[in-house]
Amino acid sequence: MRANRKIVPIAESPRSFDDQGFNWRHIAYLLFVSRTMDRIEERQLVPGKEVLYQFSARGHDLAQIILGSLLTGQHDAVAGYYRSRPLMLALGLSLEDAMAGPLMRAGGYSDGRDIGVVHNLPNLNGPCGLPMSGGVGAQYTPVAGWAQSIHYYRRELNDDSYRGCVAVAHGGEASTATNGFWSSLNIATTLKLPMLFYVEDNGYGISVTSDKQTPGRNIAANLAAFNNLKVLDGDGSDPSESSHLVKQAIEHLRDDRGPVLLRLRVPRLSGHSAQDTQAYKSREQISIEQARDPLPKLKAYLVDQLLNEAEWLEIETQAEADVADALEKAHARPLPEAHDILRHVFCETRGDGTPDLQIQGGLAPGGFHFPPDTTTPAPEPTRVNMVSAIRRTLDHELEINNRLLVFGEDVAAKGGVHAVTMGLADKYGEERVFDTSLSEEGIIGRSIGMAQAGLMPVPEIQFRKYADPAEEQLNDTGTMRWRTKNRFAAPMVVRIAGGFFKCGDPWHSQCQEVKWAHAIGWQVAMPSNAEDAVGLLRSALRSNNPTIFFEHRAMLDDAWARRPYPGDGYVVPFGQARVIKPGEALTLITWGAMVPRCESAAQDFGDQVEVIDLRTIVPWDRERVTQSVTKTGRCLLVHEDNITAGFGAEIAAFLSDSLFFELDAPIKRLAMPDIPSPHSPLLLNSVLPDEQKISTAIDELLGV
User: Fold this and answer.
1) Total of domains in the chain
2) What's residue 16's pLDDT?
3) Is 508 a catalytic residue?
4) Per the residue annotation, which of 170, 252, 508, 552 is the catalytic one?
C-alpha cells in the first residue's frame, strides 16, 4: 500500500530522543528535506516550467513535522491543504512521490491528474492522509466525519483498534473564516469528537491580513470561551514551545476529552505561491518574518544538547542527497499517459469480472458483503406509497448493514420533514439515525469523512435548493476517485427531496437534476413510483459509487406512484429504463413526476406512443432509447427542470448525432420555462407541463 512510514536516514542513538519522546534527528532530517524540496522547486523547477504550481512551506514546516511525528494511531487521519507537504512527509509520504507529484509524473498520488500540492496517502492499517481539496476550508467537515467515525467504530462496533485515535484538520488562519471551519467546529464540539483543528497563522491569506479574517487577528482568543473545546495558542517557530503544545493537544485527544484548537504562529518565509512577489509587504515586515525562521531556532535548540555541529551537518548533507536522489528518480518516471484519462470516474470492472476497487473509502475495501439480491420483484398483496417504501428499504438495509448511518436535519426526532425516516431513530439509536446541525456543508462534508473511514453514510438534504451550500463538498465527493486515480472514493447516498407539490416556490420546489448529471462521478436516480424507489435505493445503498437519490415531493404519497412492496432483496440496476407503455409511432421520454402525466396523455393515442421512464439520469439508458427512437422515428422529451440546458437537451443532442437519418420529425422538448417554480398553483400550472400540453405536443409531432 505504501512504504514503511518511518524514514531513518542516519542511525539512531539514545541522544536522538529527548525526555518527551521526540526523535529530533528525524525531525531535523525532515525539516532539511522540506527546505531542500522548496529550494529546488523555487530556483530550478518553477523557472524551468517543470513545476506549474508551487507553495513553499518554509516557516510552516517545523511544527507540521512535529505534529506528524505524533500521528501514530492505527486509525489516525489528517486532511491538509496546499502547504501541508512537511506534515505529509512526517506521515510517510515518500520523497520520490513528493517530488514526482509537482512534476506531473506518472504514479504517485494522482498520476498527473491533480495539482502536485494536493496530496493523499491511503492506509487501512495506520495513519492516513485524506485526499486534499483545492478549496480553502473544505478539509474541515470531512475530518469531523472521520472523527465521528472513530467514536462509531469504538462505541457501536466495539472495535478497540479505534481507541485513542485522532483526526486532524490542518489549515491556515484564513480558512477559519470559511463555512467548513465553523460547521465542523459545531459538529466537533456538540459531539465532543477527537478532532484537532490545527491552525497555522502566518498573518496573511495571500495578501489579505488576518484582521480581515477574524477580529483581533487571533482565532484562538476568540474561541477561548467556546464550550467543549480546548484551545491552545503559541509560537510555531519555537521548537520547545511548539512541541510541548502539540504533544499536549494529542494527549488530550487520545484521552477522548473532546476537540482541540491549536493555533501556532508561524512566519511565511515566501510568497503565497511561487508567482507571489509579496509586494504588499514592507521590507521591515519581511525582515521580521525572516528573523523568526524555525530552522536556525531548531539548530540552536539541538546543537550541544542532543547533537553536535558535525551531526547537524551530517543530517543536512544526508537530506540534500536523498532529495537529489528522489528528484532523479522522479525525473526518470514517465509522463502520465492520456490513454486512460477517462478511467476511474466510477468504479470499474476488471477483465475477470471483479471490481477494480479503490484502496480506501466505502464498504468494499474492507471486504463487506451483502446478501444476494434480485431484479425480479416479489410483490406483496397491498400497495404502499413511496414514503413507506423508502422507509422500509432504509429499515432493512440498516438491519443488515451495521455500517450504514442515516442523518440530516430533523431526521431523527421528527422522522424527517417528509416523514420518510419516522421511527428509525427509535429502532436503531441516535448513533445510527441522528439529527444534525443546520448546515448542508456539514452534512455532506462529514459524510465524506465517514465514507473514507469505511462507513456508508446516507445524508438527507430536505429540499433540492438546500444542497447549494454543500455544492463544494458534493463536487469533491464526485471527483475523488478520478483525481486520486482510484486510491480513494467516498460512496454515499444523498437523499434529496424536491419538485412541485400542490404548489411551488423558488426555495423548495426545484428539481435541477441536470446539475448533478453534469457533476463528475455521481449516479443520479429519479424514481417515479414506490417499486422503483425500493429497487433504486437498495442498488444505491449497496453501490461503490456516490449517488444522488431524488425523492420527488409530488410522488411521495401520490396514488399513481403506489405499488406493492417488491421484497427486501429487490434491486433496479442503474441505467435501465422502463417502458411504461409500448407504441409504434412516437417515443416519449420522461422521468420523475412527469411519468404519470405522460402516460395519461399517451393513452389518448392508442398504440402510437411509447412512453419510457428513464428512472436514472446518470447513467441513462442510451440503448433502450436508441432502440425505441429507431423504431418510431419521432421523439418527445418531457421534464420538469428548466428547458435551457435541461437534461432533455443532452438526450436530444445524442439522438441528433447518432440517429439523424432515422428521424422522421424534429426532436421536440417540453419543459418548464427558464424561471423558478412559482408559488401560486395558478401560476405553477400555467408553466408546468401537464396532460393537455403533452397531448398537444404529441399531436403536433405525429402530424409532421
Assistant:
1) 3
2) 63
3) yes
4) 508
